[in-house]
Amino acid sequence: MTSPADDTRDGDGPVPLLEPAGGVPPVIETAESLAAGAAALAAGSGPVAVDAERASGYRYGQRAYLIQMQRRGSGILLIDPIACPDLTPIIDAVSGLEWVLHAASQDIPCLAEVGLRPERIFDTELAGRLLGYPRVGLGSMVEGVLGLTLEKGHSAVDWSVRPLPEPWLRYAALDVEVLVELRDALEDQLRADGKLEWAHQEFAAIVANPLPGPRVDPWRRVSGLHRVRRARQLAVVRALWETRDRMAATRDIAPGRILPDSAIVEAALAMPTSVEQLSAMPVFGGRSTRRAAGTWFAAIEAARALPDDQLPPAHLPSTGPPPPRSWAERDPAAAARLAALRAAVGAVADANKLPAENLLAPDYVRRIAWSPPENPTLEVITVALEGYGARPWQIALTAEVIVSGLQTATQAAADATEATEAAATAAAEPDAS
Questions:
Q1: Is 419 left (phi over 0), alpha (psi -120 to 50) or beta?
Q2: What residues contact residue 399 under an 8 Å CB cut-off, 6+ apart?
Q3: What pairing do the DSSP bridges indicate for beta strands 15-17 and 45-54?
Q4: pTM of the prediction?
């Protein structure tokens, strides 16, 4: 595919991409048009570009309200998965193909809800990270790599609206218009930098990663929860969150539109003793919130009546290390190990021009620093990293520097202990003079 960007390599800057080459296609809303679209996809060539639009902040959950696909020779498909809940023809048409996505982990769950699961992917955002691009949003990548600018004005709209406005559909179509071209350019850069195998391993890990399951105590993600200290107040947060979640699911509305997190936290802190007190709180001043005041107060009263043994703990039990901010006080040696390992991994990341968190997950570094093996040989560290889920390319680049970093930190701690003991001994000796 020839891009308008080819005209700007020696020219005056990026070219606005205003319209798909074939125009904005009609939305696929019937079984007949879905079958025709699937046939076009099957007749195309190469990988398939895939994107999805959700109604985050408007609707309950993260379902897809529009799915965009494009393949060389097929044109762009804009599929309404609400009007076409059975996507079997599309599933069959893309079976075995490589999918090109941008920030794949964001779209894979909602695509899986409608039966679309990739077998192979190319993630253009992750490729940009591995290549060291400072900005990896789709618009930035398309501009930096292809010399084109995308209009991004509709990313946060309510995609559950029907019919979808034409400007929104144009925006959605453009998101996949040059995605395959971007993929090809990034693959060439990865190959030139010796990073293509790294990318393949990362993409395979995303595909193999299980879909996220239900969170434990999802109410603990309420914004501002850190202000709530007492167990009874935490029970109020939980009760209000669960009540809100049931209402949101029933009405298919984003929970924050029914009751904001700030209202939940303020109610838990205030512990009102009547509907009137609750309604008088400024954060409960909205019309719909006041109408449901009795429901909210009933949740508070239910939490107030719980026996002590049913109150939530302040924190969930954790199998991992504590937050690093507490290490210096709790375990200075572990804090020194963490500093040494972060510096070592960071130096390798800088040398390879990629973010440290993409070279090795910070959680893996913390776990090794907090509970290092007794004998941190290269083989032992390699096995530990494999157990955490590190990919072979990551282990090849970091295992040796982790071993070295642990040895350096251990020796520094031993030297510090020896110096402290020597100073204490000298202080305890009588003055020879």
A1: alpha
A2: 378, 381, 382, 385
A3: unpaired
A4: 0.90
What six digits make up the tokens of 194?
């010796």
* Residue 146 and residue 5 in contact, taking contact as beta carbons nearer than 8 Å: yes
> Per residue, what are the HEC states of the chain?
CCCHHHHHCCCCCCEEECCCCCCCCCEECCHHHHHHHHHHHHHCEEEEEEEEEECCCCCCCCCEEEEEEEEECCEEEEECCCCCCCCHHHHHHHCCCEEEECCHHHHHHHHHHCCCCCCEEEEHHHHHHHCCCCCCCHHHHHHHHHCEEECCCCCCCCCCCCCCCHHHHHHHHHHHHCHHHHHHHHHHHHHHCCCHHHHHHHHHHHHHCCCCCCCCCHHHHCCCHHHCCCHHHHHHHHHHHHHHHHHHHHHCCCHHHHCCHHHHHHHHHHCCCCHHHHHHCHHHCCHHHHHCHHHHHHHHHHHHCCCHHHCCCCCCCCCCCCCHHHHHHHCHHHHHHHHHHHHHHHHHHHHCCCCHHHHCCHHHHHHHHHCCCCCCCHHHHHHHHHHHCCCHHHHHHHHHHHHHHHHHHHHHHHHHHHHHHHHHHHHHCCCCC
Do residues 385 and 364 make contact, with C-beta atoms less than 8 angstroms apart? yes
Phi and psi for 432 in degrees, rounded to 5? -65, -25
- Cα 1 off chain centre by: 31
> Average pLDDT per run of 10 along the chain, which is 433 residues long?
39 87 96 98 97 96 97 97 98 98 97 97 98 96 96 85 96 97 98 98 96 92 96 98 97 96 97 95 86 95 97 89 93 93 97 98 96 93 97 98 90 62 68 54
Cβ 15 vs Cβ 147: under 8 Å: yes
Could you give the C-alpha distances from 251 to 59, 61, 161, 217, 218, in angstroms and in order? 9, 11, 15, 22, 19
Phi then psi for 214, rounded to 5 degrees? -60, 140
Q: What phi and psi, each to the nearest 5 degrees, are found at residue 61?
A: 80, -170
What CA–CA distance (Å, rounded) separates 310 from 235? 9
Give the residue carrying structure tokens 């029933």: 250
Omega prior to 212 cis, within 30 of 0: no
Contact status, residue 17 vs residue 4, Cβ threshold 8 Å: yes
From residue 355, alpha-carbon distances to 128, 181, 189, 218, 373 in Å are 10, 24, 17, 30, 26
Interior CA angle at 369 toward 363 and 375, to 5°?
A: 125
Residues 6+ apart with CB under 8 A from 211: 108, 109, 112
